[in-house]
Amino acid sequence: WLGPLLELLIRHARRLVIDADALNEISRTPDRYGPLLLARKEQGFEPAVLTPHPGEFRRLAPDIDQTDRLAAARTLAARTGCLVVLKGACTVIADPGGACWLNTTGQDGLARGGSGDLLTGLIAGFLAQGLPAWQAAGAAVYVHGLAADLAARDIGRRAMLPRDVLRKLGSALRRIGWEEEDV
Predict the structure, then answer these.
(1) CATH topology of domain 1-102
(2) Nearest one of 87, 83, 91, 97 to 49, comparing CA atoms
(3) Is the whole-model pTM more than 0.85?
(4) In the chain, what are the domain boundaries?
């Protein structure tokens, strides 16, 4: 069921974030999805946002060496026509044209199940608000990391769970001026 749904979304969703099992589906049949992802530009769509962690990246592009994460993300972005968010220490965001951004927030407390789901939701939310893909991804990665830093400050990075990061999103958004102070 995932394959036909993913194909439908790649063909018709103007804004799209691809994570987790959908990334694994693409890695299993790249010949099916690669041309569809590249065709999004010709359709006038935003590039899809791929959000792999290093293991998912390795499955998507086993031939790309991740030693240089910046070069690896750039290569995958150019190959797929997608905006790539390579999660990990110093998350890398690369667009298909070669531009890259490195995130300065967050820490190893984010390396647990559910953190990536929260990030994907933030990217999707910012896309739904009309931000361009690169800006939605960049803002989401930064705010996600900042919320994690705030949570870690309060309870420690080893004890921190994704729900603790979620609880700090409002504070993170206020800190960067995207949310008004509480009245």
Answers:
(1) UDP-N-acetylmuramoyl-L-alanine:D-glutamate ligase (3.40.1190)
(2) 83
(3) yes
(4) 1-102, 104-183
